Inverse folding.
């Protein structure tokens, strides 16, 4: 029987974390939560499901997830976010997988299905949103910048059929807060990678993002929510390029120590 260590990172997730942890019952052989000093009831809720709740200052997504993964004691790690849960079908698939004696690759991609504006989003770039979430921690490590972290497996991978359910932004105010934060982090990553915000990108990036999501990825089949996701993707792309443009022109220290434009 294969054994799984489930790992989560948390910060002020009292409204969501119980759903994620409940879905791990009967699947995870241990649950590890690394909490970034939440100021709400997150840690108390987590301790109802596991005694392995670790407080640690926030070092960034990649480093926090790597630390959580490093605390695991089993051959397999299942990484789950606090706003996600294992679907019943995925739970059944994982139960059968744990009992199987077939040879395994070193990691599995799992599709993620997102709930937004009262329905599941089955088109746009939000679906199927393959995520490498089940893996042998000995065969890779977390990679990425300030955002868009992912576990990179050095060996072979395969896919599971059934989804993780993702409960994204509860309202537009939450989305706008995340948009401001994530676009700032993404722009900083772009600067580090040597990218530049040319006029062409500022003009074309948002319309192309909308066209890809709404038409090429058939967001129109998801009705108004699909239209909204496509529009928000365009706005997010525009914000990232505008903030990249802003960072390129931010005052820098000159050799005398004065700040100049």
């Amino acid at each position: 029987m294969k054994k799984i260590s489930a790992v989560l990172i948390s910060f002020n997730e009292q409204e969501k974390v119980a759903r994620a942890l409940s879905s791990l019952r009967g699947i995870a052989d241990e649950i590890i939560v690394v909490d970034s000093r939440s100021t709400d009831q997150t840690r108390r809720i987590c301790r109802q499901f596991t005694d392995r709740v670790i407080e640690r200052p926030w070092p960034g997504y990649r480093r926090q997830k790597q630390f959580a993964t490093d605390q695991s004691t089993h051959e397999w790690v299942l990484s789950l976010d606090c706003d996600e849960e294992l679907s019943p079908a995925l739970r059944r698939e994982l139960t059968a997988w744990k009992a199987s004696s077939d040879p395994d690759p070193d990691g599995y991609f799992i599709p993620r299905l997102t709930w937004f504006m009262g329905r599941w989003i089955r088109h746009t770039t939000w679906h199927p949103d393959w995520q490498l979430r089940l893996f042998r921690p000995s065969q890779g490590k977390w990679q990425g910048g300030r955002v868009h972290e992912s576990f990179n497996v050095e060996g072979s991978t395969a896919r599971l059929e059934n989804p993780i359910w993702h409960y994204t932004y509860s309202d537009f105010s939450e989305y706008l807060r995340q948009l401001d934060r994530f676009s700032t982090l993404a722009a900083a990553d772009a600067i580090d990678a040597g990218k530049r915000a040319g006029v062409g990108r500022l003009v074309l990036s948002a319309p192309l993002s909308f066209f890809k999501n709404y038409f090429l990825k058939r967001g129109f089949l998801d009705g108004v929510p699909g239209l909204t996701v496509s529009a928000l993707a365009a706005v997010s792309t525009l914000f990232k390029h505008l903030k990249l443009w802003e960072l390129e022109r931010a005052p820098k220290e000159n050799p005398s120590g004065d700040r100049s434009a």
Remarks:
- The chain is about 40% helix and 25% strand.
